[in-house]
Amino acid sequence: MADTSIENTTVSAEAVSYNSEIAQIADFWTLMKPGVMYLVVFTGFAGLMVAPGTIHPFLGAVAILCIAIASGGAGAINMWYDRDIDAIMTRTKRRPIPAGRMAPDVALSFGVILSIFSAMLMGLAVNWTAGLLLALANGFYVFVYTMFLKRRTPQNIVIGGAAGAFPPMIGWAAVTGTVSIESIVLFLVIFMWTPPHFWALALYKDGDYAAAKVPMLPVVAGRKNTKWQMLVYTLALFPIVLAPVYFNIAGMFYGAVALIASLYFLYLNIRVLCSDEDRHARKMFLFSILYLFVLFAVLIIDRSPGIMSLIAG
């Protein structure tokens, strides 16, 4: 078996000339990985909306704000730690640190402050179950995924995907103050969705990962092996995506939409498997984002009597 441990890359981030004076507000926003944050916030909001019980609208808004801030803090720390490989990869080399617009210690301080503040605010204003889950999600993303798994194993996304699966569980805990089997089901939906989602990206960005010596599955195990593993996870996703119906988190409207969307996701996966063209992997990656958004949007609609009555009638 090939050694997948990754040594320090030959390009040193410290060789970049930093000028923090030119950092703009947009650079701090970029540090927070807004593309990731939008999905994190939305799935967290879905967990809050479908949880049994009620929460004061103001506290609900605080909970969602904390999830957003925590996601941004984790993203900033990730960019601080990965500044060396970000300088190599074409899709990341324009980020504030490798581009020289922000010093690493500024990004690290920004990320740590956001992470601590968000968890403390969640605990004090909402409840400590949600606050501890938020801290756990951030810690898992930073220490387990970013600092340990990402550069050491091709299973980095499989295990590290747990960090991105926490938001609906956090939203659920914000309302109920507990972790239940229903919230774990929502967690598992995102956890099982993550490998085919991210490996689709890795397939058409494998050159970047190889250059940065990041052991993504296509780089270590090859493209064909990756495609088969994507198919396995996509098939395993089916019963989990439909599990909210079984656990009465959602009704048949959600079940029907989830089944149709999942069948199309599977179709795209088969197209990727049967073709060497990157355009199919890119299409699957882009649809995977829409797919998760649709699942949680329909979950919210399905649990909203007012909206469902409009649809029905």
Q: Which band does the percent of strand residues land in?
A: under 5%
Mean pLDDT level:
90
The whole-angstrom Rg is 20 Å
**Proper CATH architecture of the largest domain:** Orthogonal Bundle
Give the class-level CATH name of the largest domain: Mainly Alpha
Shape: flat
Q: What is the total domain count?
A: 2
CATH topology of the largest domain: Tetracycline Repressor, domain 2
User: Unreliable segments (pLDDT under 50, ≥5 consecutive)?
Assistant: 1-14
Number of helices: 16
Write out key terms for the chains shown.
single chain; 313 residues; mainly alpha; Tetracycline Repressor, domain 2; 2 domains; 16 helices; flat; disordered N terminus
